[in-house]
Design brief:
10 helices, alpha+beta, two-stranded antiparallel sheet, 342 residues, binds glutathione, four-stranded mixed β-sheet
Length: 342
């Protein structure tokens, strides 16, 4: 059986993420057939998804909202994957489809792998260009420069790329994917190994972040965006649902302050929708949570408490400036609350 991407516990087995993607890229020179062009592409996301959340943050920090529109699935999906339940009539207003699957099938009929977010769709053909989330944000930074806002930060500075890639690689295996390896472990040993690696890496990150405000250099980079989207979900979801429970984020002093610092930074925390995050994981992963009960906690009021990280120096946006407020249609909780929470 073809193993789909995403969300399955395979009894007796270690969880292995399927890392085959549709890898065509949107580039300035259009070498894959998809040139950078304002208004031509639609970024399809779900606010719940940590991989999609990276693209929402980077699009916002760079000010690409006017060049690349955003469609929003979720917060839940069925076994055929993502639907546009938040839109009137359940249809994406630009692509005119009910299921993200339709855009995948336009690109590859009967696409055999996971129908995942984030995905970028070519609006004229209705076909997915790429779902390679790893590359999408890097291309936003390096290929879409012509459409960056004035004051856009450099999230992937040339001279720091080797270090960003190295740190992001460790964070990917042990933390971003590590929490999934805990949650979807099919046996005790696989779980224990993933758990130990996760917390060893979190301890390593805590130490690194004790003396520096951000992960690499003294400004926010791609590496911070990638770590942040996992940490933001740690207490509301992973600690309980994925059994990553040696400590809560809120008990790891340095990482908790670091995460609050980023959360309180314009363009980052304002992309987080805790209600959608909780609904997604607890309702979709029926094999982990068969009754579909969504926990009431934790209390989220403390996310806005002072973090004190300014004392470490650092310049969040380097020579750039914070982004303006989100587009009215993209304000969390206003126009994108799931119907039962609206
Ligand atoms: N495609 C990437 C990451 C994206 C991803 O896993 N997205 C999840 C949501 S967080 C998804 O779309 N899952 C849908 C599914 O598995 O049907 C991967 O599997 O490594």
């Amino acid at each position: 059986m073809e193993q789909k991407q995403g969300t399955f516990v395979l009894p007796g087995q270690e969880y292995t993420r399927d890392t085959r993607y549709i890898q065509t890229r949107i580039t300035r020179d259009g070498r894959d057939g998809y040139p950078v062009e304002a208004g031509r592409y639609r970024l399809v996301v779900a606010r719940a998804c940590p991989w999609a959340n990276r693209t929402i943050i980077v699009r916002r920090l760079l000010g690409l909202e006017g060049a690349i529109s955003m469609g929003m699935c979720g917060p839940t999906h069925d076994e055929r994957s993502w639907t546009f339940d938040l839109d009137p009539g359940g249809v994406d207003p630009v692509l005119g489809i009910e299921r993200l699957q339709d855009a995948y099938f336009r690109r590859v009929p009967d696409y055999p792998q996971g129908i995942t977010v984030p995905a970028i769709v070519d609006i004229p053909s209705g076909a997915v260009v790429t779902n390679d989330y790893n590359q999408i944000t890097l291309d936003f930074s390096s290929e879409w420069t012509e459409f960056h806002r004035d004051g856009a930060p450099d999230l992937y500075p040339e001279h720091l790329r080797p270090e960003i890639d190295e740190v992001a690689g460790l964070v990917f295996s042990d933390v971003n994917n590590g929490v999934y390896r805990c949650g979807f472990a099919g046996n005790q040993q696989a779980y224990a190994l993933a758990y130990d690696r996760l917390f060893a890496r979190l301890d390593w990150l805590s130490e690194r972040l004790t003396t520096q405000r951000y992960l690499v250099g003294d400004t926010i980079t791609e590496a911070d965006v990638r770590l942040f989207t996992t940490l933001a979900r740690f207490d509301p979801v992973y600690h309980g649902h994925f059994k990553t429970n040696r400590s809560k984020l809120s008990e790891m002093e340095v990482l908790w302050a670091y995460t609050r610092d980023l959360f309180q930074t314009p363009g980052i925390g304002d992309t987080i929708d805790f209600a959608q995050i909780k609904d997604h994981y607890y309702l979709v992963h029926k094999d982990v949570n068969p009754n579909g009960i969504v926990p009431k906690g934790p209390d989220l009021a403390n996310w806005l408490t002072p973090h004190g990280r300014e004392a470490l120096g650092g310049r969040p946006f380097g020579d750039g400036t914070p982004p303006p407020p989100p587009l009215p249609a993209e304000v969390v909780g206003e126009n994108c609350a799931p119907p039962h929470l609206a």
